[in-house]
From TrEMBL:
Signal peptide: none annotated. InterPro entries: Acyl_CoA_acyltransferase, Bact_Acetyltransf, GNAT_dom. It comes from Cellulomonas humilata. Pfam families: Acetyltransf_1 (PF00583). This is GNAT superfamily N-acetyltransferase. Gene3D superfamilies: 3.40.630.30. Residues 5-154 form the N-acetyltransferase domain. Keywords: Acyltransferase, Transferase. The keyword Acyltransferase applies. Coiled coil: none annotated.
Amino acid sequence: MSTDLEVRRVTRSDEHRWAELFAGYRDFYRLGTDSTAVARTWEWVVGEQHGLTGLVAVSTDGTLLGLANLRMFARPSTGTIGLYLDDLFADPAARRRGVGAALLDAAADLAAQRGASVVRWITAGDNATARSLYDQHATATPWVTYDMPPARRP
């Protein structure tokens, strides 16, 4: 981890910059502009609702450079609990400074503190830049992810 970075939990005072970073994350994944989704997610993260924990990577001058949103999940197949990394994002201007690595290391530490058996996440198959970082910290799995909409009943 870079020595000019600190990773810590989000605080209420991080809201404006966190929202900018999360909007950047949403833009990167072409999710569109949605201030309601950003505000709702902020409330979940800062309030640790739905089991979410928000981490931020902060430079020595106090600038938020990246974020990670994580939550615990049950793993029935192993009878253990895992830590799921929902979102990881570094400010494009701060990339290649160790922001992502610092957040992944902090996620691994949090998993150990909570007795989790794994830290798991997904990414786009064509996200080569992120995958080169992820390959240094984790093992890609052979699993394919599916999304199914909820049933719509009259």
